[in-house]
Amino acid sequence: MLYGERGGVLKFGGVIAGCAALAVVADGIFRVSTAEAAPLRPPGYQGESDFLSLCIKCGKCMESCPYLALRPAPAQYGAAVGTPILNVREQACRLCEDFPCVNACPTHALRDVEQRSDVNMGKAVIDEDLCISFKGMRCEVCYRACPLIDTAITIDFRHREGDGIHAIFAPQISDEDCVGCGLCVERCVVSDPTVAIRIEPA
Amino acid sequence: MSTPVRQKRVRWSWLRHGVQVLILLLFVVTPLSAGWTLLGLGIGGDEMQATPSDLVFYGTLSSTTIAGFNLLDPFAMLEIALASKTFYLDWLLFAAPIFVFYLLVRGRVFCGWVCPVNLLLEITDALRRKIGIIVEERVMPRRVKIGIAAAVLVLSAVLAVPVFEIFSPISAVNKGIVLGSAAGAVLLVAIIVVELFWAHRVWCRALCPVGGFYEAIGRAGLVNVTIDHEACIHCNACEKACLCDPQILEPAVSGSDSGVRAGDCMACGACVEVCPTGALSFKLGCLPHRAAGESHQRTSETTVDPVATIDSIIEERGRV
Question: Where are the domains of chain A?
């Protein structure tokens, strides 16, 4: 009787252990096979495959960001889970002069940044159908938010088409100078249906 | 009838739990004292905030900075060297202090005294005893984890990603608390479930690649459990208490070796603490080879006494 009960407990334990092992294997296959689009990375990032081969997810970049802009990638990022990413709509990179995140990285997954122009996180892209500046309204919030104002974003003012009186003050992104910090995205006044400006990760 | 005074023995388990908790707290206290919230729940603003990196100690178990000096997990260093096929010389500088420390003390001291997963599983042990779940003592293939460590390194090279860092349950605890990272969470839960319902320490004894890495360098360690064969009464209390694998005590207890030589030993002190006759003790220095030359070795050991454990000092006094 006692033996039977014990056997029952052990069998039950074995089944649970088996399920746990299966869950781990399934999770492993999911992680290695999931290829989510490359997220936005901190300054000093040198491309996704380079970054993923060097990042040990120690979190020191996150612990050195004075704006708390860097977060560990959540579970749906597959093998990249725990690596630093930015959600610039919530909190953009301020491009600190001394780049504490780059200096904190012990493995050089983030590297080679001496000044702001060395950063290449991505490029801002404006959705001209959504941007209210392109509809003739004065906004220029992204332009004024940009840490590289008049370099990365400039204002192209011109006559509105077929209109002799009104002007358009259209923000223009310089692909050469924009480093992808995302402050323009954080500040953009348009949110419906989506934000009118986004960062294409490098 | 003279009963030797034995009450004043070192409570190794309590000392060890103290160190485990202290290390866990160290990583927790830094973000808190910088004014941050744990679990990655802090929110930044438009103004600069103080950061943990401004403090003397910050980081996680993968990499810590102490007073401006970087430390790097040596196993993670091997993974990224193979994954990225590059090598930065400063990695060596950062990883060497940790590697040399465990090489000199004993590889798996990390597992016994530092690893938060072990701490969690010891709590699980206590919990299981309380609930009354019985799990069988299963013999684990303890060298498999060395193979897994090697496999992780090979896979890291093939996949160009430090593979264990995706799954590490050590990260799941440490970085989960400090940063709110989800890495390793599934494996951690699975380990606890298996521990609770199936067998003791399947993960730590047989599977963990970090444990395997430290097992591989374990035999070089200078902190060793030695045995006084004359005092041993073969009660097997030590084998029952052993945190890593009762098998590793076998050569010492059976009289064929002068102590616990296996790289698996994590110097947790459970066997030393539980031994009713004080036959087991920690000694500093290389383990004398086999029992034959014991009498010669004993004199040389007493001359290298200064760092010998309090335990053996008390014992010596008891004898006089």
Answer: 1-36, 38-120, 121-202
The whole-model pTM stands at 0.82
| Domain spanning A121-202, CATH architecture | 2-Layer Sandwich (3.30)
Whether CATH 2.40.70 fits A38-120: no
Residue range B59-118, pLDDT digits in tens: 899 999 998 899 999 999 999 999 999 999 999 999 999 999 999 999 999 999 999 999
From chain B, pick out residues whose CB is under 8 angstroms from the CB of A104: 53, 65
Q: Give the SS3 label for residue B227.
A: strand
How much is the ipTM here? Answer: 0.80
Q: Which helix (H) or strand (E) holds B192?
A: helix B185-197
| Pairing mode, strands A197-201 and A122-126 | antiparallel
Do domains A38-120 and A121-202 share one topology? The answer is yes
Helix (H, G, I), strand (E, B) or coil at B226: strand
Rounded to 5 degrees, φ, ψ at B20 are -55, -50
Query: Which of B39, B43, B53 to mutate to test binding with chain A, by most A CBs within 10 Å of its CB?
Result: B53
CA distance B243 to chain A (A): 21
- Residue pointed to by tokens 């990375």: A41
Tokens of B305: 């006494």
State the Cα–Cα distance between residues A179 and A160, nearest whole angstrom. Answer: 30
| Beta carbons of B50 and A66 less than 8 Å apart | yes
Which residue from B minimizes the CA distance to A84? B181
